[in-house]
Amino acid sequence: LSLPTPPAQLPYVPQVSPMALLGKVTATTFALEGPRCVFDGHADASDAVWLAVAFANASAAFRNPPSRADVPPYKQLPTAHSYMTLETAAAAFSCSAPSPPVLRVGSDTACRDQGRPDPCNGPLPSPGPYRVKFLLMGCGGPKAETRWSEPILLRTAVSPSTIDPAPARRGSAVVVIASILASLGAVLATAVLGALGAEVWGSLCRRGLGTDAFIRRSYRTHHIPPALPQPLRPGC
What is the rounded distance in angstroms from the CA atom of residue 100 to the CA atom of residue 135? Predict the structure, then answer.
């Protein structure tokens, strides 16, 4: 009997999507860049691309399943330390696809509580780290695979009991002090501007450019149409 042909080794390394996304990495999920153009030349119309997910220290022990019936399911992750998910038609990742898709690993919260027969994309149970790789599978088994990704570490939630409330109190005191200093600065700036304005006004008056001169010059502008200028009020 001839041994099955080993899958082609592709140089592509999966990575977290470089796009600006909200929640790119959370406590139970992460968003992967889709393997666009990676399997062109290896895939047929009936082939599917799978994502293998493994704890980083268990990725070397992962073995490709010989067929779809042998795909390790999500529910075996705690014991087998790996599983496969996100079965996608290979055409979705071809170069002719409209746009490179983003794959969110761990987004299906329903399959954690339901015994589904098909492999699901359930939430990741711990921060990891994890490694992932893409595997192209046809009717005869694996046909091509990418390299394993670098370790992907999820976010860790902070326990409320570990949060020190003291920084909040110190922050309030800093805000009060900053407000007082800002008020003093505004008062000082007003005083300086007032002193400068008084000095400039006094200089204008000494040079004969005060209010009286302004009234006299306004009175001599008889060439201006009477409907345009407004009469000066007494005391201006």
Answer: 17
Half-sphere exposure of 198 (CA within 13 A, CB side): 5
What number of CA atoms fall less than 13 Å from residue 56's CA on the CB side? Answer: 11
Distance, CA of 94 to CA of 105 (rounded, Å): 20
Contact between residue 141 and residue 67 where contact means Cβ atoms under 8 Å apart: yes
Q: What is the pLDDT of residues 31-88, one digit of tens each?
A: 999 999 999 989 888 999 999 999 999 999 999 999 988 999 998 899 999 999 999 9
**Mean pLDDT in residue range 148-168:** 74
Provide the residue type at 180 as one letter: I
- Return the structure tokens found at 35: 């393997």
User: Is the CATH number of domain 8-155 2.60.40?
Assistant: yes
112, with CB counted inside 10 A (0-12, 13-18, 19+), is: middle
pLDDT of 173 over the 90 cut: no
Q: Which residues are CB-neighbours of 44 under 8 A, at least 6 positions away?
A: 90, 138
Q: What angle do CA 112, 118, 122 make, to 5 degrees?
A: 25
Residues contacting 170, CB < 8 A, separation 6+: none
Give yes or no for residue 213 having a pLDDT over 60.
no
